[in-house]
Structure formats: structure tokens, C-alpha cells
Amino acid sequence: ASPSDFLLPEMKERNPWHSPATIIITVIGVIAVVALVTVIVLQNREIPQKYKYGIVMDAGSSHTSLYIYRWPAEKENNTGRVEEMHSCQVAGPGISSYASAPWKAGESLRACMREAEQQVPQRRHQQTPLYLGATAGMRLLSMENSSAAEAVLRAVEESLRGFSFSYQGSRTLRGQEEGAFGWVTINYLDERLGQPRPPGDRPPHQTLLQGLETTGALDLGGASTQISFVSDHFDGSESPDNSMVFRLYGNDYSLYTHSFLCYGKDQALRLALAHQTQDAPVTLLDPCFHPGYEASKDYSAVYDSPCVSSRRPQGAPLNFTHKGAGNFAQCQKVIRSIFNSSSCSHSRCSFNGVFQPPLQGKFGAFSAYYFVMDFLNLTDTSLPLETVKRELARYCSNSWDQVKQQHPAVKVKYLAAYCFSGTYIITLLTDGYNFSSESYSSIKFIKKIRGSDAGWTLGYMLNLTNMIPAEAPDSPPLPQAGYASLVTLMVLVLAVVLLLLALRPRWPCCSQQPQV
Ligand SMILES: O=c1ccn([C@@H]2O[C@H](COP(=O)(O)OP(=O)(O)O)[C@@H](O)[C@H]2O)c(=O)[nH]1
To answer: According to its UniProt record, which reaction does this protein catalyse (predicted)?
Structure first.
């Protein structure tokens, strides 16, 4: 006999576990458990992330780099962060060096393009935009020989069209664009544009960040250098050429930007050599090179650039012996002479009569700023400027033999110029842009931000693919928050159901006590 056989008939009838209400509550409970488990399993299962891709080639004066960017394919309203997935350094010189054989410029890009074909999944090739942007090397070539510059761009175009990506064009950027896109890149990567953050990626200091100012951009190339920053004292009226106005994510930015053509570090070296060879010497004792350094240089090679060609001294010999003296203070003097600080028709200037509002905020210094300062072990800007100068002075005074011995792996061409380049950077920042001993510490020498290279290419692609909307997108979807609410709701339903079930025997209708 089962235990229920011994119960009174009324008690048997009133068994609470058999009442319709209990059955309904139990069914709801079971459904809630199944739904909860399903939601948790679905939400946490590994889904392979799908990406979209974009490719930008940075055709610089000294070399070309290819960058592949990617971003989550399914994100609405461009809330997915764009990141650098891969980069490739093109072998050989910059495309402007192929003026006499333009087809070679196109040819030089092929190896990196083939690498890109391997990196981007094949099914995405046709939707992947490919851009090439050339900078100051091509600006100089256009000034010198515009048809040669066009031929180089045509050759490059023909080569790039031969690949399976969606080719969007090759062009030479204006200096202003180069500066502005560099500024967009670093502020985008630093999330300082008030852009929506990818869900689930909210740092604890998010609320602070929204109110933060943007970071200025200092870019040093081989042929030009750019400075771009937002200043409260600049609305574009004093010098409209230096003004770029943007509306990004619903915020207006009035950016000051200037690109100094011929003041990239390679052309600045030519300016310094030109300054020192005006009386056509046979031997030049150069304070910006290490003692013991000695090389024969062609006058025609040094003066073969629109930055200096008009200043070639009359009656110069074919070549001169370039000797190093390794004197930082003297080198600074030479470099100061390539900045014209005597005339300014604006309220204030940086140099060469170029307007510049007062420096404001923090700055990120990248490209050759980083390469040089990193080599010199001087990227730490908490070091007093005086210490940096002392270190540079010590480095410049090292003998050439000693320097070569200490850096056997560094190409001699680069190695010889680091004393000049370091001195140039410090002089450009202080005498050129007016950074003081105090404001020097507001500069950060950077190579990458969150894994992506600092430079103009990302900003250029974000702009051309309309990935930065002018207005803030409508509230982004919040799958994480939706998921959390759903789970909470179901846990609540379950708790209520369990509570009801637990209390059921105590309800008057369902009590197991015989009713009197
Ligand atoms: O590892 C490196 C790579 C580049 N550079 C230098 O950085 C500058 C980069 O200039 P780019 O070709 O980008 O010139 P742009 O066209 O922007 O003037 C050139 O002076 C290069 O010699 C360097 O010092 N170390």
C-alpha cells in the first residue's frame, strides 16, 4: 500500500501538489528555468566575430606602408571600434623616388598587396576599400615636375587596380589634410571624440573622458611636419588657411593645423647642409654629426630638392667632405638658422611667418618624433628639458666609431643622422612651436595607441568611409544590458514561483490539516 492509501479522503482531495494552480505555477517555473538556461547558453556561446576591412597605403617621402584596418561587421551605427589588424612595409624608397621610372613605383607595392590578399578573407576582398595617399615627397615632386608626379600616381593606380580589392583612388594629400587626419586618428583611438563606446567596453573613467579635451597631434615625416590642435583662442578668422572645422558625433571642433613643407627631418637636414655650404666649401665641419664621421657628398645630390635647389652656391665643386664635430649647442645654432623667426604679420607666429595660437592641452608626437626619441632613449617627457638637452649633447659628442660599435644593427644612413634628428626635434618643439620647459612635459612620444599606429591613415579611412558621423548616432543597441535585464527578470519569476510553491501548503485552501 502506498502512503496515500492511509490518508483520509478529504486530505487526498486537498493534496496541494495536485491542484490546477500548482500545476500552472510549476509549468511557468519549468518554462522560466528552460528559458533562463537557453538565454545563458545562447548569450555565452562562442560566435566567430565577423569583420569588415579597409586598406590604406601611406606613400611617404622615404617609404610606403600598408595598413589593414578591421571593424565588427554587425555593429549598427558604426559603434564598432576600428582597429589596425596588419601592416606591411614596402621594400625600397618612397614612390616619389621613382620619377624617372614610374612603373617601378607600381611594381614596388605588389609584395605588400599580395600580403594583404592573404590577410583579408577572400570573400571580403571585393567589399574592402583600398586607398593610397601620398604625402610630402609627392608634394615636392609635383612642385618640381608635375607630369612626373602624375605618371607615378598613374603607375601606382594601374598596379593597385590589378588586385581584387575595391580600389578607391590614389592621390596626394594636402598638408592640412595630413595634419587633420593625424589629429582625428589619435583622438579617435583615445576615444576623445565623444564617440559611442562599444558595449561592454566602458572604462571606469568614462564619465570623466567625455568631458576631456582633445589631444594635439605632432607628426614628423621625412619631408614635412604637421602640428594640429584645438585652441580656445582660434576660430579661424585670423588665419583661415590654418583652420579645419569638423562636426563629429554631434560635437563641433575648430582645429588649428599647419604643415611645414621642407621641415620633415630629411629635408630639414638639407636646409641645414645648405645653410652651412653657402660659400661652397670643399670640407664641411658639421656640429650635427659625430666626431670622426666623414663622408663625401655630392653638391648636386644635397641640392636636388625644391626645398634648397634655388640656394645652390655658384661655382661649387662637384662634392665636399662632410665631417662631424659633435657639438649639440653649435648644432642647435645651425638649426635655429633654418627657422625664420624675425617676421610675423599675425598676432603670434611659430616660425616662417606662420600664425600659431597659444599651445593648449596635451600633445601626441608620432612618426619620426617617436623613432628618433625612442632610439635616443628620450621618450620620457617627465625628464626636465635641460636633462634631455644634456643627454643629447653627450650623445652627439660620442665618436662615430663608438656609435657604430654600439649599434651594429642600425643602418649607417639612419645612425649617422640621429644626433641631427634629436637636436632638430628639440629645436623645432621649443624654438619653432614655442614649447617651454613646462609645456614640454605635456608631449607624449607615441608609436601606437591600443595597437594601432598613430598617423594620418586611420583618420583618412574613417573620413572616406563615412565612419565618423557628424551627429551622435541614436542610442546604440545594448545587447549586454538587454541580456542582463532578461536574466534578472527570469530569476525574479523563478524566485516568485519557488516562493509560491514553498508557501502553498500554508494557504488556507490547500492546508493538509483536515478542515473542521
Ligand atoms: O624606422 C624608421 C622609419 C622611418 N624613419 C624616418 O621617419 C621619417 C618618415 O617619413 P615619411 O617617409 O613617412 O615622410 P613624409 O612623406 O611623411 O614626409 C623619415 O625621415 C624616415 O627616415 C626612421 O627614422 N626610422
So the answer is: CTP + H2O = CDP + phosphate + H(+); ATP + 2 H2O = AMP + 2 phosphate + 2 H(+); GTP + 2 H2O = GMP + 2 phosphate + 2 H(+); CTP + 2 H2O = CMP + 2 phosphate + 2 H(+)
